[in-house]
Amino acid sequence: MSSGATGDSVAAAAGPTWIDIDLAAIRANVHRLREVAGQAELMAVVKADGYGHGLIPVSRAARQAGAGWLGVALLAEARQLRAAGDQGPVLAWLFAPGEDFATAIAERIDLGVGAAWMLREIADAARRLGRTARVHLKVDTGLGRNGVSIAEWPAMLEAATVEVDRGAIEIVGMWSHFAYADSPTHPTVAAQLSRFNDACAAAEAVGIRPQLRHLANSAATFALPDARFDLVRPGISVYGISPGPEVGNAADLGLRPAMTLSTRVAVAKRVPAGSGVSYGHEYVTERETTLALLPLGYAEGIHRRASGRGPVLLAGRRRPVAGRICMDQFVVDVGDDQCAAGDIAVLFGPGNHGEPTVDDWADACDTIPYEVVTSVGPRIRRQYSGEG
Fold it and tell me: Which CATH number fits domain 23-239: 3.40.190.10, 3.40.1000.70, 3.40.50.1950, 3.20.20.10?
C-alpha cells in the first residue's frame, strides 16, 4: 500500500501551523497492543482519517507492525484504502440504505450487518454481482446504537442462514461494542459480555460458527481479558492515547502519543495594562505585557470551549489562551518573556519536553481526547516521521 505520507490526508499547502505524526510511535503502539491481545488477532481502527492522523500513512504503519485487520466506519474510507493499494482484510460498518454494496463486495471489503435491511441489501447486491459477500453480524448487547437487538437476534440468524445457503453471504464474524469498557467495573460490562456469549451460543445452535468473534475496543483490550475473543478492535490506543483514566494513562499502558501540533507566532507586541484581548474583552491585561498572536482557531479544530484555558508551550513556559479563541487565531500573554514573530508554540504533543498533552486539551475543552485529535482540520498540514 502506498503511504501517501506527503499528501493523502492534507488539503492545505504549507502554512504556519503543522502537525507532526510519528509513524514509529504508531508501529510501537500496535506492537504493544498485539502483545496485550495475546492469541487474538488485531484490527487497527483507522476511521475518521486515522483519528486525524492520516488514513493512509497510519494504515500502512499499522500493517507494518502486524495489524491483520483495518477497521473503518464508512465504505468511502474502505475504498480509499483499496485505492491506495491495501488488499488486506478491512471491515466497514456504518451504512444507510442505498449504499454501493456491490462495489464493496467486488473489492472484498467486509461488511458489518447491524439491521435486517442491511442483510437484505447486501445479499441482493451479492446475487446481482454473482459473488459472496463477507459479513460480520452485529448484536446490540447494550450500547443502544448500531446492531440487531437481542429480541430480533433469532430472526437475524434465521435470515442469515438462508442467505448462507443461497451462497449470497459468508458469515466471517460476529461482534458487538461496549458502552462502559473505559470503566471496567461498571455493571453493564459484565452484562454485555454475558449477552454476547449468549448471542454467540444462539448462532452456534443454528449452525453458524464464524471465524471471528470480536467485542474489545481499546479499553477492553487492556482491561478485560475475557472480552478479547478472536480479535480485538483498538482505536484510540493505536495513536498512543489512553482510552480513559480508569484504564491507566498512556505511559502506564506502554503507549506513545503520535501527534504533535505546533504553530509559529504571527505577531508579538507590547501592550499597556488594561488592554482588552480578543472578542468580548474577556481577558484584560493587568500590567504592561507582550501578547503573542497564534494563527489558528476553531476553523482548524481548536475548540472555542478552550478560550481562557487551553494550554500552550511558548517562550519556555506553559501558558493559557488569553481571551476567546477566534476562527483563525488566538492570543497568548507571555508577560515580559522574550517572544517574536516566527517563534514556535506547541499546543500539544507527547509531553516529553514540557508541552501540554492531548489530555490537557481535552480537560480544557471539557471533552475527551478522541474529539481533540479528530477535530484538527484540513487547513493544518500533516508531516510524517519514522516511516518504516
Answer: 3.20.20.10
Instruction: Sort 287 into a burial class: Cβ within 10 Å, 0-12 / 13-18 / 19+.
Output: exposed
pLDDT grade for 1, boundaries at 50, 70 and 90? low
Looking at 51, 138, 180, 279, which residue is catalytic? 279
- Residues 31-70 have pLDDT tens digits of 999 999 999 999 999 999 999 999 999 999 999 999 999 9
Q: What mean pLDDT comes out for the span 206-225?
A: 97
* CATH 2.40.37.10 matches 259-385: yes
Is 279 a residue of the active site? yes
β strands within the chain, DSSP E: 17-22, 41-45, 69-72, 90-92, 110-113, 133-138, 169-175, 212-216, 231-232, 259-264, 267-271, 276-277, 283-284, 289-294, 311-314, 317-322, 330-335, 344-348, 381-385
| Region(s) of the chain under CATH 2.40.37.10 | 259-385
47, 180, 298, 384: which is the annotated catalytic residue? 47
